[in-house]
From TrEMBL:
SUPFAM superfamilies: ClpP/crotonase (SSF52096). Keywords: Lyase. Belongs to the enoyl-CoA hydratase/isomerase family. Gene3D superfamilies: 2-enoyl-CoA Hydratase, Chain A, domain 1 (3.90.226.10), Lyase 2-enoyl-coa Hydratase, Chain A, domain 2 (1.10.12.10). This is Enoyl-CoA hydratase. Transmembrane segments: none annotated. InterPro entries: ClpP/crotonase-like_dom_sf (IPR029045), Enoyl-CoA_hyd/isom_CS (IPR018376), Enoyl-CoA_hydra/iso (IPR001753), Enoyl-CoA_hydra_C (IPR014748). It comes from the Bacteria. GO terms for molecular function: lyase activity. GO terms for biological process: fatty acid beta-oxidation.
C-alpha cells in the first residue's frame, strides 16, 4: 500500500468507506502538483482495492476543503509545462468523476479554484454551513485549468457559471445549494457523520448498478473531451502573459493587481 505526504488515507474495513483527506493545513490544503499526483495514486489504489466500496473526499481542519492551487508553485510554470499541469489535473479529476465507486465530497470550508474543481469532480457534494465556493482564477490572469469551465457550466448552467468565473464572486453554502452546486448543507459538526450516512445508504444498493448509473450519467456530458482540451490549451497560454506574472506576483505580495491586457 502506497504512503502519502499530503493525504490521509483511512479505510474503515467494516463499512468499506475510504476517507481521503487533503492534509496540508498550513497551506489551507492548497493543491500542489505533488498533491494532485498523490490524489491520482490514492484513487488508483482505492479503485484496485476490493475492500474499498465508496470514498469520502475532504480537507483537514474546519477552515478549508482546498483553498486553491499552490500559487507560488504555478509562477514557476511556462506555457509548455502549464499545459502538462492542466492535463495532469484534468486526468486525475476525471478519474474521480469516472470512478464506478461512489465519491462524495465533504466540503468543510473554502473550496476555491482547484478546490472547487476537485469538489465538482466528485459525484455528490455535501457542504458545511461555512463552506464557500468560487473560481477566482481571472484575478491572477488565469482561467480554471482542472475542468472548472466545463463542470461548473454542467452543474449550474452557462449564464451563472460565466458570471461566477468572470466576477470571481464566492458562493455561500446556501446559495450553492439553491443553484445545485451542492446536494446538502449541514452544520460543520455534522458534516462527516452526515456524509458517511449518505454514502452508507448508497452502499446498500447493487455495486455494479451503482457504477453503471455513474457511467451513464457521465456519458451524457462527454463530448470527446474537446472542452477539456480547449481549457488546457487556454490555461497554458495564460502562462505566456504579463497579466499572469502581474496577477501571481500581486497575490504573493498581497497587493492589488494592475493588469494591462498583455
Amino acid at each position: 500500500m502506497a504512503s502519502f505526504d499530503n493525504l490521509l488515507y483511512e479505510l474503515n474495513a467494516t463499512t468499506g468507506i475510504l476517507r481521503l483527506t487533503i492534509n496540508r493545513p498550513t497551506k489551507l490544503n492548497a493543491l500542489s502538483v505533488a498533491t494532485i499526483q498523490e490524489i491520482h495514486r490514492a484513487m488508483q489504489q482505492a479503485l484496485d482495492d476490493t475492500a474499498v466500496r465508496g470514498i469520502i473526499l475532504t480537507g483537514s481542519g474546519e477552515k478549508s476543503f482546498v483553498a486553491g492551487a499552490d500559487i507560488a508553485e504555478l509562477t514557476a510554470q511556462d506555457e509548455i509545462t502549464a499545459r502538462r499541469v492542466a492535463e495532469s489535473g484534468q486526468e486525475t479529476f476525471c478519474m474521480i468523476e469516472e470512478s464506478t465507486k461512489p465519491v462524495i465530497a465533504a466540503v468543510n470550508g473554502f473550496a476555491l479554484g482547484g478546490g472547487c474543481e476537485l469538489a465538482m469532480a466528485c459525484h455528490i457534494r455535501v457542504a458545511s454551513e461555512n463552506a464557500r465556493f468560487g473560481q477566482p482564477e481571472v484575478n491572477l490572469g488565469l482561467i480554471p485549468g482542472y475542468g472548472g469551465t466545463q463542470r461548473l457550466t454542467q452543474l449550474i448552467g452557462k449564464g451563472k457559471a460565466l458570471e461566477l468565473m468572470l466576477t470571481t464572486d464566492m458562493l455561500k453554502a446556501d446559495e450553492a445549494l439553491r443553484l445545485g452546486l451542492v446536494n446538502h448543507v449541514v452544520p460543520q459538526a455534522e458534516l462527516l457523520a452526515f456524509t458517511e450516512q449518505l454514502l452508507s445508504r448508497i452502499l446498500t444498493k447493487a455495486p455494479l448498478a451503482l457504477g453503471m448509473v455513474i457511467e451513464c450519467v457521465n456519458a451524457y456530458y462527454d463530448k470527446d473531451r474537446h472542452g477539456y482540451q480547449t481549457e488546457a490549451n487556454a490555461f497554458a497560454r495564460c502562462f505566456g502573459t504579463a497579466d499572469f506574472r502581474e496577477g501571481s506576483s500581486a497575490f504573493l505580495e498581497k497587493r492589488p493587481a494592475q493588469f494591462t491586457g498583455n
